[in-house]
Amino acid sequence: MTKIALVVLDTLRKDYFDKYFKWLPGIRFDNAYTTANWTVPAHASLFTGLYPSEVGTHAKHNVFDYPEECLPEILSSAGYSTRAFSANTNITGHFNFDRGFDEFISPSRMAHLTDENRVNWRKFSNESRESGIYKYTKAISRCFEGDVNTVKSIVDGIRVALEQGGTKSGVKYGGTLEAISELEGTTLSQKEFFFFNLMEAHEPYEVPKDYKTTENIDQTKAVGDLIYGHSDRKNLIQAYDDCSQYLSDIYKSLFEILIDKFDYVLTLSDHGEMLGEHEMWGHEYGVFPSLVHVPLVVSGSEVKDQTRKDPVTLIDIYQTVLELAEIGMDGSRRGQSLFDESDERKFLTEYTGLTPWSEDILKDNGYAQKIDTYDDERYGIFTGTEYHYESLDGIINSEAEATQDVEAELATLVNNLNKRDVSGTVIPDEVEDQLKDLGYA
């Protein structure tokens, strides 16, 4: 009878984790790498034990519609209670990431995005042609129609109205405060899997006033080495630092509950953030070390504190959870248990091209001709003790000069990918505002 918590600290860089999370106990993996530069493909790997291109969930197709069973579905079939709390708009039922979960929870400000029984107020407001008392009357009448929850819809409408002219961020600071409240009110089963996505380190870099040490900043809206927002490097980096410090403190409160309720707690980031390296910002492009080198810690009452240097990948999370759940690892998927050490592993990170919103940003700012430059596939490879990656110029880079052997190994791994041929990224109208709040659309 095992209880497992999987916690994604979205967008937290490894170096900032090292700076602020020294308190976190367990096995710390110094050479952990994600499979992608942003949330959707990284989570596809977490839940399948495959590379994003093999799952078919990435920049060119953001729906999690992989036809084989995913991790929550396998756990549910094995008798586990499966729950999720996601503060990330991209990881919701809109994109099929609620597959296999008995309960999929979003923060109250995002509830109308995941609950089909509530009025979608932002969509109603954008589409309504009425104004004044007529718009108000139509809005109230919509709440009493038979296909919606009247009380919850009215509460949502009041909340959206109050937010007009102020922040429209989907969650307060990042979601951990609400995650704590949800967890404290949840009675767990003997066999439990609980997934969390927390957004404190993600743009728009909002923190409580006690943590704020810099002026308000605009979102970067960066694509490649082009930036269409805040260009004050010092303040932008400080804002990210403030978020990382706050995340450490608030996650410590959540972790104390988790470690008391669960046998194992896996804490990790899905990707990092560019903070001016190579003149790039955000996480819309590339497989640079700052994007793909991520924190990863396995904690538990039976887990001894240690730091490991052997290379691991987020694909290993899938196999590790199956092992902890006593289901047995899946030979049809990639990866290995995090409890197995190997210094000779080779694995990939992937960049599958621009998202539709990145293309729109380039077009809107007069750089449509740059789309082809950034829309190529790029790969990184961890081999032995070094990470090599393809840069904007198509040259493999690392701390040491790349050799022909490295180039050949990269080509071999890429050729061995069993890519799923899909296309067509979907952005529902009701989530577009939330994506804008996060600096995407």
UniProtKB/TrEMBL annotation:
It holds the Pfam family Sulfatase. Residues 25-326 form the Sulfatase N-terminal domain. It comes from the Archaea. This is Sulfatase N-terminal domain-containing protein.
